[in-house]
TrEMBL record:
Protein name in the entry: AraC-type DNA-binding protein
Stretches assigned to the HTH araC/xylS-type domain: 183-280
A matching Pfam family: HTH_18
Family matches, as InterPro entries: AraC-bd, Homeodomain-like_sf, HTH-like, HTH_AraC, RmlC-like_jellyroll, Tscrpt_reg_AraC-type_HTH
Origin species: Butyrivibrio fibrisolvens
């Protein structure tokens, strides 16, 4: 299945500083499609999100939820142009956190690469404290390496860690029947990324009409099936390159028809060539 041209933006965003903090409460003109980061993203939504993509799951997320998204996890949090979304966003380089905390960084395994996305549901008082911490950290963004900035950062991280530790079991999340079907399709795709699956193949697997399957997928994912498959294959390629696999090995393992096609697709999605990405990742 070939990638479409519906989104010309790079789908892998590189975060530069050790951490970054932002607050937005705006009407979106150009919602961001499925993408990933080279950092952990802590997304505190103050708006209900009806169709959130986190890895291989689509679900509804209520306002007041803290979403922890590990590095390189494909996600999409909002998608409607013309809608107002209010959120705080903290991005953290987990390798930087490892260097700062040394052995103590193991306590924060849930924000590391290869961990699963995590949803936390603070109560009213905990929400108030999180917002206070976020606002305090925002005030230091012009000098984020100052001692006061570091104190604010780790104070916020400590509160989030306490909230995580107090969460005894995961909350049941609202997933509609159609979202469940799309989740099943996503899981199947994740297990067969190296195969050149067509819509007809998937329709036969799930006993659905091909046109209906394509419409159902786009209704919840807000991108076409081909677009999503390309993004997931490149995300898998990034993981393999970080492990030290050669570009040729990754191209063949993921079933790209040629080295040149893989090279072009990787560079289009990430903004960097696979050879340069590999060199930067294994230094």
């Amino acid at each position: 299945m070939s990638s479409d041209k519906e989104n010309n933006h790079a789908l892998m965003f590189h975060v530069g500083p050790p951490f970054d903090m932002a607050y937005h409460n705006n009407v979106t003109n150009y919602p961001v499609g499925p993408h990933s980061h080279n950092a952990t993203e802590l997304y505190f939504t103050l708006t209900d999100l009806p169709d959130v993509l986190l890895g291989d799951t689509i679900l509804a997320v209520p306002a007041g939820t803290l979403i922890i998204i590990p590095p390189f996890c494909v996600h999409q949090l909002y998608h409607e142009a013309g809608e107002q979304y209010e959120r705080y966003i903290l991005t953290i380089h987990d390798k930087w956190l490892d260097n700062v905390l040394c052995e103590g960084a193991s306590a924060f395994c849930y924000i590391k690469e290869d961990s699963m996305p995590l949803l936390l549901f603070p109560d009213v008082e905990q929400k108030r404290e999180l917002i206070r911490h976020f606002d305090e950290l925002l005030s230091f963004m012009d000098n984020r390496t100052s001692p006061d900035s570091m104190v604010a950062f780790f104070s916020l991280l400590s509160d989030i860690h306490s909230l995580k530790m107090k969460t005894k079991k995961p909350h049941s999340m609202k997933v509609s029947a159609s979202q469940k079907k799309v989740n099943d399709i996503i899981s199947y795709l994740s297990e067969h990324l190296s195969e050149n699956l067509t819509i007809s193949d998937l329709a036969a697997q799930f006993y659905l009409n091909p046109d209906y399957l394509a419409r159902l997928f786009k209704r919840h994912m807000h991108v076409s099936l081909g677009h999503y498959i390309t993004l997931q294959r490149i995300s898998a390629a990034q993981a393999l390159l970080r492990e030290g696999k050669t570009v040729r090995e990754v191209q063949e393992y993921l079933g790209f028809s040629s080295y040149a096609y893989f090279f072009r697709t990787f560079q289009k999605v990430t903004g960097i060539s696979p050879s340069n990405y590999r060199s930067m990742s294994i230094q």
